[in-house]
Amino acid sequence: MKSLFGKLADGTKVHSWALDNGGTRLKVLSYGGIVQSLEIPDRDGRYANVSLGFDTIEDYVEGSPYFGALIGRYGNRVAEGRFTLDGESHEVNVNDGANSLHGGAQGFDTRVWDVEPFTEGSDVGLYLYCTSADGEMGYPGTLRTKVTYTLTRQGDWRVDYEATTDKATVVNLTSHVYWNLAGEDSGTIYDHELEIAASRYTPVDSGLIPTGELAEVTGTPFDFRRAKTVGEDLRGAHRQLLYAKGFDHNWVLDKGVTREPEHVATLRDPSSGRTMRIATTEPGLQFYSGNFLDGTLVGSGGTIYRQGDALCLETQHYPDSPNHPSFPSTVLRPGQAYRTTTVHSFQA
Ligand code: BGC
């Protein structure tokens, strides 16, 4: 189940692990902890890879928009790459216009993780380890991270994130799978039905930084409390959709931070019947409708990825939380354990 996937320019080997359990087949790379493919059956038992990706390590290194990757140390944006913690100001790597995105230019998506397979009862999975040095990309503290990917007996894909630090820091870890439940080479996700259990979202400015307001979704394109297709309101002339060229926003999950993962979203492709339910301990969900895919990348199925060919549902704390004291805190201190869990369940 372990094979050589390729080598980085400096000769570092990148391995691929294949896991198969409960009807779900997963391929994971040590580079970025990337989910290279995730295959699930449709209502007739036909498998498809429902996650955008590439066939070669070179493609991932050269220009992947975070396909399938683990994101850290801070998922989503930090305004102008600056924040103050305990009275001390920090500057982190700016890689998205004026802002920092997904941990900076060399985020966790570009790290080679130590990977260890495990079997526990009827579960199979991988432990992924990464240590980020004090000051890496500007973030304070040595951050020791462990991510566990588990395929359960039911075929659920469960992701457990754990981290510790030796200095006060901020952490926001997530996974950046681009989903297309009809198959990664099947065109747009505009007909997918999406439900998000959130009455509010965080409106953004033109740089996609939250204004600080928690706005009601009622009467806006952002109301997904009852399932509707992604395409239904995508062209609604709402200023927020103009800023992001579509949906690229954080939903304020009604359940808030929870100890155990609770249901927050359902995605369904009516054509294949494939359905994914997401449960999480996290208070936010970034729904990104693949707006910046622009026809310049050829994916693992040999087709060109264009705008709207996939969507991301990134469970996390709200963007730019380090600069918004009213948002749930992303501060991690020595002696504390960062722990979050997200479970993806599949049916057809
Ligand atoms: C962000 C998008 C960004 C994308 C990277 C998403 O998580 O919300 O704004 O373009 O990642 O391709």
UniProtKB/TrEMBL annotation:
Q: Binding of beta-D-galactose: at which residues?
A: N76, R77, H176, V177, Y178, D248
- List cellular component terms (GO): cytoplasm
Known EC number(s)?
A: 5.1.3.3
Question: Which reaction is this enzyme known to catalyze?
Answer: alpha-D-glucose = beta-D-glucose
Q: Which Pfam families match?
A: Aldose_epim
* Alphabetically ordered keywords of this record: Carbohydrate metabolism, Isomerase
Query: Which GO BP terms, alphabetically?
Result: galactose catabolic process via UDP-galactose, Leloir pathway; glucose metabolic process
Q: In which pathway does it act?
A: Carbohydrate metabolism; hexose metabolism
UniProt-listed InterPro entries: Aldose_1-epimerase (IPR015443), Aldose_1/G6P_1-epimerase (IPR008183), Gal_mutarotase_sf_dom (IPR011013), Galactose_mutarotase-like (IPR047215), GH-type_carb-bd (IPR014718)
Q: Name one GO molecular function term.
A: carbohydrate binding
Class of this enzyme? isomerase
Catalytic residues as annotated in Swiss-Prot or TrEMBL: H176 (proton donor), E314 (proton acceptor)
Family per UniProt? Answer: Belongs to the aldose epimerase family.
Q: Which PANTHER family match?
A: ALDOSE-1-EPIMERASE, GALACTOSE MUTAROTASE
Q: What name is this protein filed under?
A: Aldose 1-epimerase
